[in-house]
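Fold it.
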Amino acid sequence: MSGADRGAGIVTRDGAVELAGRLRGARRVVVFTNGVFDLLHPGHVRYLQQARALGAALIVGINSDRSVRAIKGPARPVTPEAERAEIVAALACVDAAVIFDEETPHAIIAAIEPDVLVKGADWAEDAVVGRDVVEARGGRVVRMPVEAGYSTSAILDRLRRRAQP
């Protein structure tokens, strides 16, 4: 991958589509995953590193604040979307981060058309959003093992317990 492609940082949806198209034009494998990434922990980092190892570039979709509230309730996210995207984009294994506002990543997956779609193995095979798009193009879906003992919800629960008198 050229220096111009590495570390694109935070990109718009159009920027992510353009990056993916440029990489595919150079016959590079584009990997996509998505998530909230509210409180980044070692489980997230290991997951993203493993996802990146599956191709030449990793584009990460970050749920917008509005979509996180719709999915996880009014108390989330803890970290605003721009900060979550900045943190994820700063990881060496991430080539670009893109914020999406829908409750599911289907539209952004359809726009980017990744060669490999990665989700945690805690998602049932038939529940992986975007599977249809990726497989229709001849790509593949990889369900990555989830690191035991790491979760944002568990971190928040620990903090709440400690704050109680």
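Strands lie at 9-10, 30-35, 57-63, 96-100, 116-120, 140-144.
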